[in-house]
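Hi support team,

I'm filing this because I wasn't sure whether my run with norvaline finished correctly. The job status page said complete, but I'd like someone to confirm that the output block is well-formed before I use it downstream. Pasting the exact inputs I used:
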Amino acid sequence: MNHAAKRDFLAIPDLSRDELRQVLDLAARLKRGEGPVRPLEGRTLAMIFRKSSTRTRVSFEVGMAHLGGHAVFLSDAHTQMGRGESVHDTAKVLSRYVDAIMIRTFAHAEVEELAREADVPVINGLTDLLHPCQILADLQTVVEAFGPDLEARAVAWIGDGNNMANSWLNAAHRLGFGLRLACPEGYDPDPEILERARGSGRVELLRDPLEAAEGADVVTTDVWASMGQEEEAEARARAFAGYRVDGPLMDRARPEAIFLHCLPAHRGEEVTAEVIDGPRSRIFDEAENRLHAQKALLIFLMT
Ligand code: CP
Ligand code: NVA
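And here is everything the job wrote out:
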């Protein structure tokens, strides 16, 4: 791998607007059964998971198989990284074996360090700060519902200003769609990411979830306590009590609005069963699109 040419995907703005469109177009073609045949024949992806996963692990692993390549699952329980081997040494060693590395971990800085030290492309499979691969799938799902003109869309984020909220902000910044977030005080998104996205002029941070949902095309939310915040769960349940996506909130959105959730979900907490299992929910298309969007991303970064 030519080091100078290597591209990483740690955050949505790592791709230009045109490149994002290119990846989303390829994802749609792959979903239709079109696109290159086994373009990653003989290539290998290392997948480092320092947190749990169902969708990310399976979609990357199956995606690599579809593309003719292979994925290697690495977890803290069974690697020297889990026993404290440095990111530097891990990056150098893995770069001698594999053609790309996907990592899910806690500190975003760790992924940045891995990307700096690795000689192969690094993909962020979720950090405490960002979850960009999920947003690719979410954008694909929005395009499926409303067509390719993402700029015309209005998205409402309800709840925690977490890794998903930050990634929606990055996408709004890059693609120029409207984004209204309703977060309780003390649970705002990352201030730098928020400020940069506000520069795009179509991003607002509110406190009132009903106001955020008004006229939206897409209503989306996430768990109140993310991975690593388990001991905050009770305090968070109190803070987020008014931030549940329910029928009356969905009624504030456009009649054709869709509901998205990256999953896993807690029915009865951040969203009612009526909404997440109702006719406006696109959660399983969204989960499926992880596969197509990431296959497109892998082709983009590895060929
Ligand atoms: N949405 C998502 O990333 O799911 P997993 O935690 O199951 O990978
Ligand atoms: N915000 C959640 C997303 C899980 C896919 C978490 O970080 O746990």
